[in-house]
């Protein structure tokens, strides 16, 4: 029990902290303005005086750069201090190291006045004990590995708003359950929130793991994978600040809506945002010689809709497969000798070098270098022989060398990819051969007719200087092997979310593009929604990212508990996928899952009426449809019924996450997001078959507090199974 005297001391301490915060904030604002003024004056001087002396110009540029860095540092401090004025700290541990007992107040950033720490940054080594340890014996490690042992004699948590301590708790456990439950019971926000106050022990171990070069995290929906990744970025920026800054970190997001959704996490815990991109946008920047038709959303649309193009569907299935990857590798190997120019070198009828000699030399070359680099090395070897054989014929020698250079300069990756689609019979035979070499089951093979259709479909696009999206990664593999991968050595850490939906080839490309980077990979095999990408584990991903890297360490971590949804929603969702991995859930109860047979009169459908009612209670409500095609059909009917103004329609072109109205959103865009209430639309047997169990699981696990599922005809077989296994948490029909 916290005494009134202790509460008074805590209020006094908060006043002291706020006084120092405001003093520091004022000072940093002045410093920020001075640094900006200094930068502007230096730039004006350089422009006004038209500095041409290289040494003086370089010195000025260095001064400007340093001033900008200083300005950025002050800006980060200012933003952190402004947030701390709103909530100065959230926890305290008293640690007895055997010589003294020191109170450690923990917040989103450090607050120092003189030599005294008033608040410790949550990422500081000593603060790890708050997340990992209970009362009693505890320890933490310094950056040099030294272990400091002692005892935690007090653990306290706060809810602070401005100058007022709203709540204060003492606990013997890791995190006070009531604070976690309160956070989980609240409404979802427009942006993902930080979890710095409630990081769990298993999450903290992942966040603070700085030893693994490749860290793979498997966890169920709602286990905090994305939050953990964001906090891990913040931790790495803090603990390795001499080696890495925000410009060295890249997040590869599944779509723009997701990027918008996570954009507030880092600023809310004291860091500036890092680079974010989608795989689509990143790859497009390297395939400039072609226009790219479609993106990942178009792939999902084709896979999930009825009115799809069969040839496009077959093209996706082929080109996302390991068979096509195998074909590309063989094609590159076939073209290698041609690119390297391994042939007899004959000048004026005289044999200068024979093919066998060049072949032996070519076999010694480093295959990690591009084929063009290898071709240039072959040319250098030929040139050295020409210097001897044609020493008395300098003009002839120069002419031959010029010809060799021109041949290499004229090599184009785009032409090589087109060559694969020059002859229909050769293409079909090549794929058939690959099927046989890889012992591909008959059910996974395209027929000869289907292969011919894919050939013509791709050839037609190439004739228009265009690539289908499913061709892009294969083309970039070819281009990288031929011309080089243009490695982005400035990127030192890459975060990949929804790892289960990327192919091995995509990981291969990422490894080549970011050779100096460590990786955080986040996935859930229960949420794998790409039918053509299947992982039973992540070993193959780790292997391809580790390939050709010396002394790389990798680690596989598991998050075994889900926090997002209520007990009822989780129990229902686990039945959908037969809980193949097995996970625990927090005991937070709510409404039963509603399964509703809806009417066929569109304007009177309960799904829309219920969603609008729920919006009056909850901050964010979503109607999740299977595809964008279905969304557009729904929108057209809502417009006709005069009901469309009550909804926001989220499509692949939507760039922001908006909760002002009920959102109608495709399943694959909703992945990674969360809503207070979810209504799953059209859960009919012909829309969500048994093959869609993971996709249906994704739809249902977006809900925090309330899940309702609607069908109009024959219900999905997935519902039948879930009803049988989770009947205690399900309500058939019923009021909203």
Describe this structure in words.
This protein is α/β, with parallel strands linked by helices and 736 residues long. Helix content is 46%, strand content 18%. The chain is built from 27 helices and 26 strands. Strands 1, 2, 3, 4, 5, 6 and 7 form a 7-stranded mixed β-sheet that branches. A 7-stranded parallel β-sheet has the order 22-23-21-24-25-20-26. A hairpin with a 5-residue loop joins strand 5 (136-141) and strand 6 (147-161). Helix 1 (4-48) packs antiparallel against helix 2 (54-86), helix 14 (371-389) packs antiparallel against helix 15 and helix 22 runs antiparallel to helix 26. It is globular and about 105 Å long. The model has no long low-confidence stretch (mean pLDDT 90).
Main attributes?
single chain, 736 residues, seven-stranded mixed β-sheet
Main sheet attributes: strand count, strand direction, barrel closure: 7 strands, mixed
How far apart lie the N and C ends? 42 Å
Helical stretch tally: 27
Average pLDDT works out at 90
- Bin the strand percentage: 15-25%
Total E-strand runs: 26
- Helix content range: 40-55%
Q: Measured on Cα atoms, how large is the radius of gyration?
A: 30 Å
Provide the low-confidence segments as ranges. Answer: none
The geometry reads as: globular
* Protein structure class: alpha/beta
